[in-house]
Amino acid sequence: MKSKKLVLGLALASALLLTACGGGSNTPTPGSGSSAAAEGAAGGTVRIIGPEYSHLDPAMGFDGGVTNFYRLVYRTLTTNSTEEGKSGEMRPDLATDLGTPSDGGKTWTFTLKDGIAFEDGTPITSAEVKFGVSRVFDPEVGIGSPWAKQLLDDGSGYQGPYIDKDKDFKAIETPDAKTVVFHLNKPFADFSSVAGQNTFAPFPVGTGAAGAFDAKPIASGPYKVDSYTRGGGMKLSRNEKWDAKTDTVRPAKPDNFEFLFGLDGATIDERMLAGQSGDQNAFQSGSIQPANVSRLQDPSVKDRAVRIDPICTTYMTMNTTKKPLDDLKVRQAINFAVDKVSVQTAGGGSQLAKFANTIMPPTMLGWVDYDAYPTPDNKGDAAKAKAMLAEAGFPDGIELTLDTRSGKNQGYAESVQQSLALAGVKVNLNVIDPATFYEVIGTTSQQHDLAVTGWCPDWASGQTFLPPILDGRNIMPKGNSNHAQLNDPVINKRMDEIAAMTDVAAANKAWGELDQQIMETAAPMVPLVYENNVQLRGSNIDPGVVGFNAGVDLVTLSLIDPGK
Question: Rounded to two decimals, what is the model's pTM?
């Protein structure tokens, strides 16, 4: 079990296990009905209607929606609980426990359960776990969660099993078929949570090259992919080789899942709001559109709405490597210019968004409530921003390009565009397909001046929020999550100091203070809103669900009457 002396930044009873770029876990609130997991009956087919997933390969996807999907198809060494009120706590998954640390927290040993197998019946051993994790070191594959790459980098320049076919990656040892030993490059108290990341899904040795898993995954979880059409849909059936006796986390009650992609948000809303018989077994994977929030008061709809409290921050990054954004005063001026009330309205008003002034959301442990760039009623101060730009040498204003994705974020971007125009900043929008958005802005050579994006912590520690998006040593050509490309030695050093703390309360407090320090001394972004999420369920979807990734955990979905 995890050593309590090594726990850093994790509230064991109330932590939120979250997944970055749009992920987190929380308990749905009524109008969503019961909060107990999967109270419905076994059997039947659940239909999921929502946005296209970025990647079916768990080494590549990292946005909240797809990490939720991964829980249906893949298993990892550990995973988050589906128990009511405990969705933030880690549970053993493929491993027998949460891992045993040694060498001051630099070495972690896991023992695999008996009876675990892939969809074809091939046993999952330590070799398959090692192979699955080592895939993330391939520069083309490992564009998802950065934790394995950061903590297991042994300095050898290893580039994964497809490129370095004959090189043994010594950061992971497999002394026998049941034992996996990870050698970290620094002590990390909460590696049990890291081992629950998607990148720790096992795969048969030698598989998955050339994007194979994006077309046809190899399942270790309760469901396998039967068919998948990009832009169309996907069908899952029960993985008969998954043994529920080895998996105490996933209720996995439906026999099948059917995913429908390719519909715009407005069309999805109309279907779910209508609640006709064809969609009584359907669940909306994305949030309702802002324009339809008022319709949630309809008595026929109200009880089918599932609300998730805000656990992520949506913000606009400023690329600090590009002129004139390399000037702190320019970045501060832009912070003063943004009308956050307008942004909130674009996001659907107070039911779907609360305006943000901090980098981390209020649900984070150690959160500090501050506003480094206050404006009257949070509506922006164009005059002050314009004066600051003039002081910085830009009396005639500046012109910038803003990367955004279609949908709600485009509404945010258009609101920002209007705010900045009043301060003399002309903003050109570059609208990117949601399926490729994070891949594009995560490629530093393709990133423009600004980007509307966001982050959700992987678990409830500032360690999983600030370093991934603001540590300059994490900047990489592809799969980059430091979209501000901030590389401040003072901030980097402070992150190391906090990470080395062993006192939980002190570390949490320090992360909150660093949040404020970053905004005051570097201003690499404009916090916009903390987003709520409202999803609609069909009338035959059992209301007993648990939250995950800023939405409902798909493995807790079930039907009231599987015969319908």
Answer: 0.77
